[in-house]
Specification:
7 helices
Length: 157
C-alpha cells in the first residue's frame, strides 16, 4: 500500500499498543499473529482499502487450516492458529473488513454518480444561461452600432 517511512512511523504497530505482560484481547489476537512485516504494512496504510489489500495478501500466503483439532478458547486458538495457519478470528475479521469496504465502496460510488449527474445538470444550465446572456449582449451591442433608423438587427448574421 503506497506509503512512506514517515507514515509508517506515525502509526504504532499492534505489538507496541499492547503491554507485553498482558495477553492480547481476543478481538486483536489475530493481528498479533501476523508477521511484523505485515503489521508494519497495515500500520502504514492510510485507507481501509489499502489495509484490505494487505490482509488479503497475508491470508493468501497462509497454509490451509487443519480442522481436525477442536479449538476451545481464545488463548488456545491463538496458540493453535500460529502453528496451523489462519485462525477463525483472522478469517472472520478479514471477511468483516471486506464486507464493510465493499459496502462503503458501493455507497461512495453511488454518491459519486449522483454528484456527477448533478454537476452535469448544473453545468448544462450554466452553459445555456451563458449562451442566452451572450446573445443578449451581442444584440445590444449591434443595436448600439447600427446606424440611426436602420431598423431592427437581423438574426441572420
Amino acid at each position: 500500500c503506497g506509503h512512506t517511512p514517515h507514515q509508517a512511523a506515525a502509526v504504532p504497530l499492534a505489538a507496541e499498543l499492547l503491554p507485553a505482560a498482558q495477553p492480547a484481547p481476543c478481538g486483536l489476537a489475530w493481528l498479533l499473529q501476523l508477521p511484523m512485516y505485515t503489521q508494519g504494512r497495515l500500520a502504514a496504510c492510510a485507507a481501509p482499502a489499502e489495509a484490505l489489500e494487505v490482509l488479503d495478501e497475508a491470508l493468501d500466503g497462509l497454509p490451509a487450516r487443519d480442522d481436525s483439532v477442536q479449538e476451545a478458547g481464545c488463548e488456545h486458538s491463538q496458540l493453535s492458529a500460529s502453528s496451523k495457519g489462519a485462525s477463525p478470528e483472522v478469517v472472520a475479521a478479514a471477511v468483516g473488513l471486506l464486507q464493510q469496504a465493499r459496502a462503503k465502496v458501493a455507497e461512495l460510488e453511488a454518491w459519486q454518480e449522483t454528484s456527477r449527474r448533478k454537476h452535469e445538470e448544473e453545468l448544462h444550465a450554466l452553459q445555456q444561461r451563458l449562451r442566452a446572456e451572450r446573445h443578449k449582449s451581442l444584440q445590444r451591442l449591434l443595436a448600439r452600432l447600427a446606424p440611426p433608423g436602420a431598423g431592427p438587427v437581423s438574426r441572420g448574421l
